[in-house]
Specification:
single chain, mainly alpha, N-utilizing Substance Protein B Homolog, Chain A, about 0% strand
Length: about 150
């Protein structure tokens, strides 16, 4: 398995625990790395994703709420919510991962960890967001949401 895919899986596992029981994300990541050591490149990318997502969570959650209004964020499956956060961070916030790659990776995570309907849901929300990437980047830069 590719390093970035392993890092996304690790990030998803850490975000899941962070989301459910609010343990400190850095401590959760370190515990995972201690329990199951990975290559340095995997650990570094997972850390980059994790801390970027935690920092930008309020902005990403606002976008998820806007583009998936039929699924209130607090009612959305924890796995789905965090898969969306990973992909949105990668292609919209960080911008270093090509949009199609981020969406494809998110759909693969949804197939692996989500319900039967998760891949289609994830693909739909991210596809709609991807169509608005430039506008959303401008909006977020001009009017950032304060992180609480």
């Amino acid at each position: 398995m590719k390093a970035r895919r392993r890092a996304r899986r690790l990030t998803l596992e850490v975000l899941y625990e962070y989301d459910i029981v609010a343990h400190a994300p850095g401590e959760v990541l370190q515990r995972h790395l201690n329990d199951e050591p990975v290559e340095r490149v995997v650990a570094e990318f997972a850390g980059q994703l994790l801390f970027g997502i935690v920092e930008m969570q309020a902005q990403m959650d606002m976008l998820i709420s806007r583009y998936a209004p039929e699924w209130p964020l607090e009612q959305m499956a924890v796995i789905d919510r965090n898969i969306l956060r990973i992909a949105i961070y990668e292609f919209l916030m960080d911008g270093t991962t090509p949009t199609k790659v981020a969406i494809n990776e998110a759909v693969e995570l949804a197939k692996m960890y989500g319900s039967d309907s998760a891949p289609r849901f994830i693909n739909g929300v991210l596809g709609t967001l991807a169509e608005q990437t430039d506008t959303l980047r401008q909006e977020l830069l001009l009017d950032p949401i304060p992180v609480l």
